[in-house]
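User: Continuing from earlier, I have the next pair ready.

Assistant: Great, send them over.

User: Here they are, in order.

Assistant: Folding the first of the pair now:
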Amino acid sequence: MKKTVEHITSILSSHAIGIDVSKYEESFLLNSFKNKIFEKKINSENEYLSILENSETEATHFENSLHNNYSEFFRNPLTFSVLERIILPSLTHSIKYSKQKEIRIWSAACASGQEPYSIAMLLEELKSDNTENFSYRIFATDQCDMQIDAAFAGKYESLEMNNVNMKRVKRWFAKNGNSFLIDPLLKKNIEFSKFDLLDKTLNSPANSIFGDFDIAVCSNLLFYYKPKFRNIILEKIQHSISDGGLIITGEAERDIFLNHQFKEVFPQSAIFRV
């Protein structure tokens, strides 16, 4: 395995565009490599290595396949239940007595937008059910331009709606053939932008100016990276969170946060206090 991964890394870095995949976990890199071989119906690893070596286009396609583009609405039911019933109501109440003018949330790897839209639904529902008025902004970022464009478009197919209950489908989507279009109201307080979590020059999205987020959502991302790069991302997110703020991760990444001595707010919720 190690030799194959080293070969892939060497080939990609030798291209004129200089693709660096050394940050990724070896098992993830190898699985992606094998998936490409299966997808293209290629007979051997060496054959695909040769294609990677001689085709800059294929090298770019392979790198793009490493970006985690998979997402779902309300992906972890327990996490979103805690958000809906405890975390967000508490935030909307406390902001009334603070100098802060808005709730600030960062969706740090938003993929095609399901995550920030799910949070926006909860906040808009709180607004309509609550006599307390409040403002919020969600900064939704991803390293892939195509994903940012898809997220802003807010167009989803039927299979992508499985976790959205019928009440929310009717309230927040317009059906267009076999697709569902997100309500423009949910886009009003979401700012989509490209952002690389491994960029050494910025700790938070440029349009957020100073970070200071009440919540940062960084789920189903860290386990794709080697520990060194996980730590860079974790430190960056920590620096962007306000005092007492929260980080939300995925179920599969709870151990990473627990091993870094983060305190989980509610058992099994994957919500941690900084």
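And the other member of the pair:
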Amino acid sequence: MEIILAKPIGYCYGVERAMNITYETLKSEKNNIYTLGPIIHNPQVVKKLEKNGIKIIENLENTYVGTLIIRAHGIDPKKLERARKMGFKVIDATCPFVKKNQKRATQLVKEGYFLVVIGEKEHPEILGILANANGPFMVIENKSDYKKLPDVKRVGVITQTTQSMENFISVVSYLLEEYKEIKIFNTICDETIERQKSARNIANEVDLMLVVGGKNSANTKRLAEIGKSINENTYHIETSEEIIKKWLKGVKKVGISGGASTPKWLIDEAIKKIKKISSH
């Protein structure tokens, strides 16, 4: 059985950086180390960090003051300021591409544009962007949101860094027809685009496609959606334990893709499980 791996595989730059910062913090700080929400969207990695002493909190109240690591998705600047005033030592692990996105959004609002953000309304990256921009906005998740668009003259557009290019182009095409003055920043991360292209190409040439990563990860879910749209034998799994023997019956080629927050060891475990099943 042939196994074809998508490229890139393993952590993206922003996640790798956030994880390195977290492990360095564990070496230098001994007690009361927190992240406000999970540092990345991978339950298996987060569980490991918890065992190493990282505490995940949803708010700053009723918490002993200590060290607060800002997650890769970014944070509301008011919460950041509050943490510092409360006495927390703040370590910022926000992805540089997300920070750039926050700056773009702030710039558009300052220039007088009505901000349109293409992405998932409740995603932490989106919430952080909107809090930083601090101006009139609307989040477009899908076509059903179009009818809610306001009657304004100037629209500024950015997108969640892990959006699909197809959705970005679809929304922008609609906006170009509706508004006279529009300023657009394509803020999809380059590595997101590469992962989506690779998943698409592989899904076309394999009998079975596996996408490994957190069920709570937006970019991983997107890879699974792309795979499924091309190859109906596409499955989104978090761990190798979810791989079912019957999936591999009669399969000659297996494609494996992973989300930006999927560690290489989870990919390796999936490969090991596939080889074990196929050898029997």
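Worth noting for the second one:
The mean pLDDT is 95. Residues 85 and 200 are 47 Å apart (CA to CA).
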